[in-house]
């Protein structure tokens, strides 16, 4: 008698590390595939097609859809942190350029502020290169701020405005072009003018 049948056979498609939502930590995973086989005498002989695939945590054995591999809260937090620093720096550069002049006192404040917010030492050569390219493309900052604004809380938005203010007032003169630019930046961040006025009043009083 010929004994034949069908069977699902599991194989490992890929391995790696991922963030397991169930363990709430980084764990090893196996990306497994289940294929249907035609079997003869219980031996899988002919692959007939995929029944599905899943990701299995090596620790808790929980299984997931493969989309789980794209989820990485640490990377996401790092990405927002980097975007935040970039927006902060761009804001200060933009404010500095608002009156059409680059003063050494302003460059120094930008350097100091970057160093205050970042764990990496700022490079002055890099900053100056960035200032040069910012002169060429002033619209990028507004796009960045519009993207970032909804992800920040009020404190985060206020810090960007305060950083801009520090540069604007570095030459001892807070002029209309600088004020106007702050209004635009606040608008891009989704802040109301009243909120901006409050932040300016508080910062000036310090
Ligand atoms: Zn797990």
Report what the structure shows.
There is one protein chain. The protein is an alpha+beta fold. The protein folds into two domains: 4-70, no CATH class; 73-205, Orthogonal Bundle (TerB-like). It contains seven helices and four strands. Strands 1-2-3-4 form a four-stranded antiparallel β-sheet, with no helix packed on it. Strand 3 and strand 4 form a beta hairpin. The radius of gyration is 27 Å and the shape is rod-shaped. The site of zinc ion has 8 residues, from loops. Zinc ion binds next to loops.
Rounded to an integer in angstroms, the radius of gyration calculated over CA atoms is 27 Å
CATH topology of the largest domain: TerB-like
Main sheet strand line-up: 1-2-3-4
CATH homologous superfamily (4th level) name of the largest domain: TerB-like
| Total number of strands | 4
Unreliable runs, pLDDT <50, ≥5 residues?
Answer: none
Q: Report the average pLDDT across residues.
A: 87
Shape: rod-shaped
CATH architecture classification of the largest domain: Orthogonal Bundle
Which descriptors would you attach to this protein?
rod-shaped, about 25% strand, alpha+beta, TerB-like, binds zinc ion, about 50% helix, about 210 residues, four-stranded antiparallel beta sheet, 2 domains
């Amino acid at each position: 008698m010929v004994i034949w049948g069908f069977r699902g056979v599991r194989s490992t498609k890929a391995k790696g590390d991922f963030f397991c939502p169930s363990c709430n930590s980084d764990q090893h995973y196996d990306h497994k595939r289940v294929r249907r086989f035609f079997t003869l005498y219980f031996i899988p002989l002919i692959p007939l097609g995929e029944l599905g695939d899943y990701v299995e945590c090596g620790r808790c054995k929980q299984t997931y859809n493969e989309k789980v591999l794209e989820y990485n809260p640490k990377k996401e937090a790092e990405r927002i942190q980097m975007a935040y620093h970039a927006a902060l720096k761009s804001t200060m550069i933009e404010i500095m350029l608002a009156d059409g002049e680059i003063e050494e006192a302003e460059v120094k404040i930008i350097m100091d502020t970057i160093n205050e917010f970042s764990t990496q030492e700022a490079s002055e050569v890099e900053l100056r290169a960035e200032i040069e390219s910012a002169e060429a493309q002033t619209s990028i900052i507004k796009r960045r701020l519009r993207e970032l604004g909804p992800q920040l809380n009020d404190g985060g938005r206020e810090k960007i405005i305060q950083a801009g203010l520090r540069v604007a007032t570095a030459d001892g003169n807070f002029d209309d072009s600088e004020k106007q630019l702050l209004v635009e930046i606040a608008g891009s961040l989704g802040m109301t003018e009243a909120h901006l006025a409050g932040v300016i009043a508080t910062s000036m009083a310090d």
